[in-house]
Design goal:
Elements: E1 8-12, E2 15-19, E3 22-23, E4 26-27, E5 32-36, H1 44-63, H2 65-70, H3 76-85, E6 94-96, E7 102-104, H4 109-115, E8 116-125, E9 133-140, E10 150-154, E11 160-162
Parallel strand pairs: 5-8
Antiparallel strand pairs: 1-2, 2-5, 3-4, 6-7, 8-9, 9-10, 10-11
Length: about 160
């Protein structure tokens, strides 16, 4: 559970407050960010008022890792398409990625799902401090998408939608 003392001021116009944290047992490469609409204010008091909703959304995300990742399952075919673009010879069954890893051009749905890990997590409060949306960016290891991230949105009603890469 996050508390007010976990946060520091954000350093740009897109994040009012930031904190470091793990998600699904993985250390996020980017800090968790929280942003508020101008009408709500951007003070520590606003953050304190929003903490119950933020912690509830974070708990939902932690508890629903499988559902969040499953929303991106359809992208396994796109991963294969990207890999096939790297094939030099028709009989190649493996390709080398930008990071030097050799991977099979045939990516099973299970391998794709196992490759997903969280990179960034953002919370946004638009209308009130009682309801927030969240954005999660996932990456793959191996990096099937050459550094591109998978974008997943969770709205105020906890509906999960993958918006692709």
């Amino acid at each position: 559970m996050l508390t007010i003392t976990d946060f520091q001021r954000g350093d740009n116009r897109y994040e009012d407050f930031v904190t470091e944290r793990t998600l699904w047992g993985e250390r996020l490469a980017h800090k968790i960010s929280v942003s508020f609409a101008e009408k709500l204010g951007k003070t520590e008091e606003t953050l304190a008022t929003a903490l119950p909703a933020l912690n509830a959304k974070l708990a939902f995300i932690e508890e629903n890792e499988a559902a969040v990742k499953q929303s991106a399952a359809y992208l396994h075919e796109l991963a294969e398409d990207w890999l096939y673009e790297l094939v030099e010879n028709e009989d190649d069954t493996e390709v080398e990625l930008e990071d030097g890893k050799m991977v099979s051009v045939d990516v099973s749905p299970e391998c794709f799902m196992a490759s997903l890990y969280p990179m960034a997590l953002d919370f946004e409060f638009k209308e009130s401090t009682e309801v927030c949306g969240a954005s999660i960016e996932l990456c793959c290891d191996p990096d099937y998408f050459a550094g591109h991230r998978i974008h997943i949105e969770i709205n105020g009603a906890n509906e999960i939608e993958c918006n692709g890469i």
